[in-house]
């Protein structure tokens, strides 16, 4: 049957935007930020970070719809996101063709083209993995995002939520900082110019009167909108990934808390055999929780590994271009603002991605210490006691292999990756500086 977009569906879509704004307001006021979500049955739990990540995923067309109306919305979102990406590649490529020979300006255009191309590839990869993404999301909702925690576990859980909200705020700020340079630069350059000589954020090689009113204002607004669409697509693949990493970190901490506290049975009269049986039963539940976390990390690896590889393979080159234009190139101060903001935003996103993944890896290995610090040595050597020690050894051996994400299996995503990439960027920058500053006779 043909799809009909009714007014109720439009208001439902707009309500998601108002939910994000309302939740942000409640968070700033220090009030409870939980509310029933309106997407994909997330009624068990949601907060500002999940609501915003859901919104930006729907905004770029990656979300999996529930009905025909949402499928139409998703196709519209994918259409305007793809148009913005293709338009950005087209404008920068044409400008490179006409500006060839101007090393500084061509470097700026190559930086933009490379960044947009990387975003396009990541969006294609994530779109092809939508089924796996939804599977991971439902898995988190079913096993992690609920309220069936003890008061102590709930405190650990909300510490993870606090980290997630801070990350989202940081990501929004970094994105706006990186994109503001493209808007500020033409405004600065237009100071003191005639209306017939005004410049746009991106030069258009067309025979249109784009410097005249109202064509200039319309094109300026259109280009700024496209820049923001591209920026949303740029951060979209990593938005939910960092939230997943932080929640997995919290779940490993909850697991450690359970391992350290199931020994305490104050107020219950138990002999040695009953106490051993109680501990063994609690350990089985901890093992099940550990297996759930390992399986969830494998799901994240399947969905995001190629996207991470694409990001890591290109980002070093982008940071090298930023460094060259900021330090070496003979360019205007307004143009340096773009590269400075872009470099700081990209570096911040890379740091958060590696930092959250490193958090997850460290907490997965801390399970060994939590297990060993228990009172297992006081248990008798009966059947349950021996079974407990055997299961304890297995969980400690498995924890020797930490849970982490990789870039297509080539290397793990840790803080060591962050420092290695910075070292590679500095090496590329040094080589690029020597090449452009070499005398003509050499």
Describe what this molecule looks like in 3D.
Helix 4 packs across helix 7, helix 7 packs parallel to helix 9 and helix 8 runs antiparallel to helix 9. By secondary structure, this protein is an all-alpha fold. 74% of the residues lie in helices and 0% in strands. The longest helix is centred in the last third of the chain and has 56 residues. It is elongated and about 90 Å long. The termini are far apart. The N terminus is likely disordered. The chain contains eleven helices and no strands.
Compact summary:
The chain has 442 residues and is mainly alpha-helical. The chain contains eleven helices and no strands.
Number of strands: 0
> What is the helix fraction of residues, given as a range?
over 70%
How many helices in DSSP terms? 11
Mean pLDDT: 82
Parts with pLDDT < 50 across at least 5 consecutive residues: 1-43
Radius of gyration: 26 Å
Order of helices and strands: HHHHHHHHHHH
Q: How large is the share of residues in beta strands? A: under 5%
Topology:
Layout lengths: L6 H23 L18 H12 L8 H31 L4 H26 L1 H14 L7 H39 L25 H47 L10 H56 L5 H40 L10 H17 L15 H22 L6
Helix pairs in contact: 1-2, 2-6, 2-7, 3-4, 3-7, 4-7, 4-8, 5-8, 6-7, 6-9, 7-8, 7-9, 8-9, 8-10, 8-11, 9-10, 9-11
Keywords:
0% strand, 11 helices, single chain, elongated, disordered N terminus, 442 residues, 74% helix, mainly alpha
